[in-house]
């Protein structure tokens, strides 16, 4: 299913090219079809009759002359935001209630003609960045069902990525509106605190919570923001709307030694490529990440945990076993926080906030990886707190320090999951960040989002071979017997040396990383994960499997060597590859 465009739908309904009812019928059919793949995207949905009635009311308003900026646009709502007609569960059945009124943002979207199709799944009480902490099931990455969708706005992101709705509301306290956007190849618009009303939102950390939106492109993010952004006198954390310009001359990025990718070499490569494109917009300036990281640590390692505890105080007291065990483990330490802890935290955060404000004198905006890596669902379930923390490495500080942020796609991993960067600016630069995103995306030449995963992808590994496993060489059968698929002939980066190992039977080379080396010819094959595992069992010492960088900068698995492989070995680097060496011996 192709993704939907809020901008095009609204224009078509307003002009009479289609009707909101026709859009609603198509939307319902899309959702029903995708329910055979991921019914866990939703916690509750409108019936077809309810959806058609809501759409017919929009058509009547259009016919009556109303100019509705979101006429007939279907959208989903994270189920910690109140919508009349749907229970609000926050991902916890024992907490569920019937809201008496719509949330402030919902009022504005419905008034603009949008049609709510249902409530989307989430990490319970919006506590998580991965999407696996819900009794309603685990939404999975739309492009690879083996991987997490990101959270806590899990269902919202998948609903947009799968083409079920044109946009979906999420929330963001520590990155929940940005991480899922990155993994699912989406735009994740996180407004400045107070730009969008949070009235009617079940709080996570009330002082820093933001309602956000997932869209397929920046035009839709602009459109939704133009409707949702407004001062709400009934929300004590709402503020008067402001839009600050942003002259992008200096773009702050973490120092090279402070960049953490948790072993994800693809993410590191894609971030470097993104910085190359951003360098055409402004000067790249390395900044010290440490103060921002200190602020981030206060969110889960300091007294702000108690704010989450306060939001869940009732159910923790009355029915603690109804709370997901991982969520409970995260929030219960807040009970032991004292007022002294809180005030010391506030004082330290004020100092870090001052540092961040002064940072804007040296740079105009920041561009960070949205996340350093991603994980399979099975991996996340095995280590739910540690791996979840890794996903927040670049996101947790943003709301604490009152910054605007916009997550944008920045590439596709080999496993089809998305890598993204987040553009971060001072408070109230929300619309300016959208302009920067347009300029970046126009020059980034990114691939289209991969197809939806409808049945679960087989996990594969790309392997570079350099010697006896090459086609027509003595050990090539070890690849063909495992149904390895030939990807292509390549060269390594010019940072390798090649040696013929002494007394090896059959003859084998040793590939060694060396900055004074040269480009070496290799062949790349793709194997299933299980087949790759069985292949590595057959690799004899002094050879080993490690990472090999190709000429285009990408990294694949490949043959490397222990130091003892060079004892008595012949340096054959100048020949450029193993085939040339074998030919010289013939």
What do these coordinates show?
Residues 461-583 form the Allophanate hydrolase C-terminal domain. GO terms for molecular function: hydrolase activity. This is Allophanate hydrolase. The structure is a single chain. By secondary structure, the protein is of the alpha+beta class. The protein has two domains: 6-442, Amidase signature (AS) enzymes (Alpha-Beta Complex); 460-585, Hypothetical upf0131 protein ytfp (Roll). 33% of the residues lie in helices and 19% in strands. The protein is built from 20 helices and 19 strands. It has helices spanning 6-15, 20-34, 48-63, 104-111, 154-161, 179-183, 218-228, 265-278, 290-301, 304-311, 313-318, 325-331, 339-359, 377-382, 384-391, 397-400, 430-444, 477-480, 529-537, 578-585, and strands spanning 42-45, 74-78, 115-120, 167-172, 187-190, 210-215, 250-254, 283-287, 365-369, 403-412, 418-426, 460-465, 485-491, 496-500, 509-513, 521-528, 543-549, 555-561, 570-571. The protein has an eleven-stranded mixed sheet, with helices on both faces. A five-stranded mixed sheet has the order 13-16-12-18-17. The chain has a three-stranded antiparallel sheet with strand order 15-14-19, with no helix packed on it. α4 links the parallel β2 and β3 (115-120). The model has no long low-confidence stretch (mean pLDDT 96).
